[in-house]
Amino acid sequence: MEIYLGIDVGSLSTKLAALNRTDELVAHVYLLTQGKPIEAEQQGLKQIKQNLPKEAEICGVATTGSARYLAGVVVGADLVKNEITSHAIAALHYFPDVQTVIEIGGQDSKLIIIRNGIVTDFGMNTICAAGTGSFLDHQAQRLNMSIEEFSRRALTSKSPVRIAGRCTVFAESDMIHKQQMGHRLEDIIYGLCQALVRNYLNNVGLGKEIKLPIVFQGGVAFNQGILKALKEELKTDIIIPPHHEVMGAIGAALLVHEEIENRNRSNFKGFEVSEIDYHTSSFECKACPNLCEIAQLSLNEQVLARWGGRCDLWERNEEKK
Prior knowledge:
Layout: E1 2-9, E2 13-19, E3 25-32, H1 37-51, E4 57-64, H2 68-75, E5 79-80, H3 83-94, E6 100-104, E7 109-115, E8 118-125, H4 133-142, H5 147-154, H6 168-180, H7 185-203, E9 214-217, H8 224-234, H9 247-260, E10 279-284, E11 293-299, E12 302-307, H10 313-320
Parallel strand pairs: 1-4, 4-5, 6-9
Antiparallel strand pairs: 1-2, 2-3, 6-7, 7-8, 10-11, 11-12
Helix pairs in contact: 3-9, 5-7, 6-7, 7-8
């Protein structure tokens, strides 16, 4: 059985998706990165191997996400792609007429504009956490409830309270103030969902023409409070794919399937890489005044890859070697 594997290693979660020859999803894995992208990728490889049929043969591997270069070196990727392309391809695969893709993850959020099957524009927030899933998780923990309960209670709000959501610090202060004033917790929670959506549309979506159909993907699409707030703000229905949390990995798998058709064999190093003990370190590059922090991956004191600079100086040096 031909299998094409997509690996999406983000700052908060790591996703793997395995597609067969006809691009049907055979197996997928979703787990937390917990600040250890290599270990998370290795654990994901172990889990997805157990979920695949014995006759499965990995014919191509692609990586995406914030740690895509690191993940690609570890696994022997045939293709390394950015998140925008991966999420767009996955959305187009399931919904060929899609014109807008909303993707809200743990640490960043994206808005992808598609016209006639081609990405024409995108917006991305990687600086402020106010429009991301990690902020919701933090507030749920502060309120001593699970994110699932947080989502459920948001739907029971009758009179949502307006929360200042432009900044995480101000939003949290405003929530505490509203609690002290005696507002119902459900109204404060849904008010926070509305604030996150406003922040997303006013920043990531600034100047973008949002057209139907709209597809909402990423881990935050599990949150019914955010979905409800999005529908109210945009005044329209929103499509959520069945496996919205692994769409980046699915897109990477679709891309490598197309790419590998022009090759004889894959560079995949095998599932054995899940047992290897890699070492990561960093140093300051002094090639220019930027003084970038360069990360490097080593095995048995041999440097396998370097990345992280504003330019591709170290990546090019490793390719030459």
